[in-house]
Design a protein that fits this description.
This protein has 445 residues and is of the alpha/beta class. It has 19 helices and 5 strands.
């Protein structure tokens, strides 16, 4: 063999081995799937890559060609078990039922802040899901998914499934006999939506209804039904542990003054100067000016002194220029009585928070709900606001009384409106049990 022939042979050898090095072998597990007739369990993309010649050759091979071939029998048994599970209708239904429960849980938990409150809010979805799968999954097992007790579930079920026409919220009147009557719920709705009271605080609305003898339930029940009706109350910020405001024990012991700005729809600013009695929170006098004015503070002090004739004047304000000036100090110094002007957070450590809170109440609950275009209209509405605030709107902080009642020493005892709560509750329970609907065929005896 000449040198040229040897060189050609070497080149062919290199090309052959280079081709062999690039070729990949199929995994032995793939071969077992085809050899055992289980190729349908493989992904279709993988099956399509296997050449028919390879499949034919693998099926003709003897099983003992590979060491450890016994393992293929275990694989075959496991795959057949999986296939049987998928083909068994009972097991397939069970799996689908569990997946449905989990999907429901995920749907509930998407935007939850408090898990329990969201579970209650989505009780209809949960009850319907559990009822639809109870033939496949025991109810107790299904309840574990949502972490609720059997008793809670039955309460939910009564609310969702057993609708009762006489009840405002369609709750079963027999099972929930303590619920308010439909007429009482309507009363709450009327008071909360009343044009005169709809912007009041919830405690004031409750006290007003109680004093009018239109409602006979405790305050927490009132809040509960307000929430059910969709009238939610904003969460109040918790006061600091170091909060230590001034305390008074009688009317005319301390007067507080401040100014707040209100803008009408014509974009003009109006400065409302207020003077209140600290003990009763009653508005003693007010002035509306074009700017914050020391003269306005002097005038409301003069008006209140002449009208209510206090034995002395202790006057609390902030350090604003409308309060600290020669006009105000000159008026106080010329009085024929003891007078003292105290600057909050300067002469004393406490603030003028009482009247600052009143400013917010006046604007949020009385002025902002109105559409006020001019000073003339503001004067009319402010006159009515002061009258309603002093004589009509009861306050929880005043024991359910109005500022006028407390200032004049004629407060009512709010407990006199609560003494009949127990008898009315018994009457409500009896009336609820007597009602019946299509679900409750016969009234309770």
């Amino acid at each position: 063999m000449n040198t040229k022939t040897l060189a050609q042979t070497d080149d062919s050898f290199l090309v052959y081995h280079k081709h062999i090095a690039k070729r990949k072998s199929w995994d032995t597990n793939i071969k077992h799937y085809f050899r055992l007739g289980l190729e349908d369990s493989l992904p279709i993309e993988l099956r399509n890559k296997v050449a028919s010649s390879n499949i034919s050759r693998w099926k003709r091979e003897h099983s003992n060609k590979y060491i450890g071939c016994e393992l293929s029998e275990y694989i075959k048994d496991d795959i057949l078990l999986f296939n049987k599970i998928g083909q068994t209708q009972r097991l397939k239904s069970l799996n689908k039922a569990y997946f449905k429960l989990l999907e429901t849980l995920h749907a509930v938990a998407v935007n939850f802040g408090s898990f329990k409150s969201e579970i209650y809010a989505q009780k209809e979805l949960i009850v319907n899901s559990i009822e639809s799968v109870k033939n496949s999954i025991p109810i107790n097992n299904a309840l574990k998914v949502f972490n609720i007790s059997r008793a809670t579930y039955h309460n939910y079920k009564s609310l969702v499934i057993h609708k009762c026409e006489p009840s405002y919220f369609k709750w079963c009147t027999k099972r929930f006999s303590n619920q308010l009557l439909a007429s009482e719920v309507e009363t709450i709705k009327q008071y909360v939506t009343h044009p005169e009271y709809c912007h009041w605080s919830k405690p004031s609305i409750y006290l007003k209804a109680l004093r009018d003898k239109k409602l006979s339930c405790c305050e927490s029940t009132f809040y509960k039904y307000c929430k059910l009706l969709g009238f939610k109350t904003k969460r109040l910020k918790r006061k600091s542990d170091n909060y230590n405001p001034i305390r008074t024990s009688k009317p005319n012991e301390l007067w507080c003054a401040d100014v707040t700005i209100f803008k009408t729809t014509n974009t003009k600013k109006h400065y409302i100067h207020l003077l209140i009695d600290h003990f009763s929170k009653m508005i003693l006098a007010y002035r509306i000016c074009n700017s914050n004015s020391g003269r306005a503070i002097k005038n409301i002090l003069k008006e209140a002194r002449e009208k209510y004739n206090p034995s002395h004047i202790q006057f609390l304000t902030d350090a604003g220029c409308e309060n600290v000036n020669h006009t105000v100090s000159g008026y106080l110094s010329n009085l024929n009585m003891t007078s003292k002007h105290t600057i909050a957070q300067h002469d004393v450590i406490y603030s003028n928070s009482m009247i600052e809170a009143l400013n917010k109440v006046i604007k949020q609950q009385f002025l902002y709900p109105e559409t006020i275009h001019s000073r003339k209209q503001l004067n009319l509405i402010m006159s009515k606001t002061v009258k309603d605030y002093n004589t009509l709107r009861p306050q929880k902080a005043l024991g359910g009384n109005t500022p006028f009642e407390v200032f004049n020493g004629d407060p009512i005892e709010i407990n006199q409106y609560k003494i009949h709560f127990k008898s009315h509750q018994d009457l409500r329970r009896l009336q609820n049990k007597k009602t019946h609907c299509s679900t409750c065929k016969k009234p309770s005896k």
